[in-house]
Every structure is written in C-alpha cells, then in structure tokens.
C-alpha cells in the first residue's frame, strides 16, 4: 500500500469532515439566533437547544482542526524499527481474516476504503495501539479476546 497516498486520503477525509461540521455549526448558529426562535415562555426552548447544538458543533470543528494539523505534521517512517506512530499495520486472525490499521496521532475510529481494503485509524492511546507499539511482523497481539498476528508493517 502507498502510505503517503493513504495519509493524503486521511487528510482529505478530515478536511471534508471539517467542512461538513462548519456548515452544521453555521446552521445551528443561525437557528439559535433567528428572531423567530426567541423564547416566548419558559417551555419554548428551541433557541436554547439550537445554541447547545451550535456550541457542540464548534467543539467538534476544533477537534477536527487539531487532528488535521497533527496529520499534516506527521512524518512517515518505514516499519523496519518496529511499529510507531504513522505505521500501517495488517493483522490477521487465526481464521485468515486480515484487517488494516493506521496508527495515527488523532481521529481514532475513522474508517475508510483505500486501495480495495478497509483501513481504520487508531491511536497509541487505544488498547490495540498500545499493544502494537514497538512490535513487528510475526508478533502476536490480543484484540477482542482473540490473538491476532502482525503480518505486514508499512
């Protein structure tokens, strides 16, 4: 797999997610501040609810911005010295099912298709990320109570 192209795909996906979050935050803000949503009594909470939503969307935008900055600054290395931040890792179960993981600085749980494979971003803060650090091909790790073998590190 082409790791620089994979990193670029992650950056593009986060950029798209940021755009979507910005539009959602703007819509929520406009709803919260619209003159028709001024509360007429204590039970009229549409404006208040929209302001909570706008605040949440603004936080989400900031999280995505920070993750995007971390991925843009990420220096890719080969996996020769063991798995570290920026590694692309293939794990294989005893039944032969292969899963791809990218050990990234942020955006844990981001899942997408790349070169015909599903890749999931994990971070070193996750249990799987912690167990992968420093390991190499043919090492075993536990995942969901089952043993997985590291079959490829890029």
Automatic annotation (TrEMBL):
<keyword id="KW-0251">Elongation factor</keyword>
<protein>
    <submittedName>
        <fullName>Elongation factor GreAB</fullName>
    </submittedName>
</protein>
<dbReference type="InterPro" id="IPR036953">
    <property type="entry name" value="GreA/GreB_C_sf"/>
</dbReference>
<dbReference type="GO" id="GO:0032784">
    <property type="term" value="P:regulation of DNA-templated transcription elongation"/>
</dbReference>
<keyword id="KW-0648">Protein biosynthesis</keyword>
<dbReference type="GO" id="GO:0003746">
    <property type="term" value="F:translation elongation factor activity"/>
</dbReference>
<dbReference type="GO" id="GO:0003677">
    <property type="term" value="F:DNA binding"/>
</dbReference>
